[in-house]
Amino acid sequence: MRLLSVFLLLCCSGCSHMAQDSWTGKDKAEHFFSSAFLSAAGAAYGERQNWSESRSANFGLMFSVGLGAGKEFYDSREAGSGWSWKDFSWDLAGAAAGYTLWQSAR
C-alpha cells in the first residue's frame, strides 16, 4: 500500500522536466544493481535489528525505492537530466531482485 502511495504521488507530482533516454545502457544497469544492493542491504539491516521478516523486507524495499525516487527527483530539477520513468522502472526491478536474492540466501 505504501509503495502504491509513493507511485501515485510520483505520478501526480507534475515533473515537467522529463528525460529523453532509452531502455538500455550502462545507466540502466547501474540503476538495477544499485537498487538490488540497497534492497538486500536494507533487508539485512532489518534482520540484524531483530525485526520480523516482513518488516525487514519492507524496509529494504522502501529504502531502495525511496533512494531511487529521490535520485529521480534530483534529476528532474531545471539543471538535471530530467525525470526518467525508465530509470525508475530499473530501480523497481533491481529492488525486487535484491529482495529475492536476500530471501534465497537466508
Explained architecture:
By secondary structure, the chain is mainly α. The chain has one domain (26-105). It has helices at residues 2-11, 26-48, 53-75, 85-105.
Our count of domains comes out at 1
Q: What's the assembly state of these chains?
A: single chain
| Whole-angstrom Rg | 14 Å
Overall mean confidence score, pLDDT? 88
Give the helix/strand class.
mainly alpha
- What is the distance, rounded to the nearest whole angstrom, between the alpha carbons of the first and last residues? 25 Å
Largest sheet: none
Shape verdict: globular
In DSSP terms (H or I, runs of 4 or more residues), the helix count works out at: 4
Low-confidence stretches: none
Estimated share of beta-strand residues: under 5%
Helix content: over 70%
How do the helices and strands follow one another from N- to C-terminus? HHHH
What is the number of E strands? Answer: 0
In short:
With 106 residues, the chain is mostly helical. The protein is built from 4 helices and no strands.
SSE layout and pairings?
Elements: H1 2-11, H2 26-48, H3 53-75, H4 85-105
Descriptors:
106 residues, mainly alpha, 4 helices, 73% helix, globular
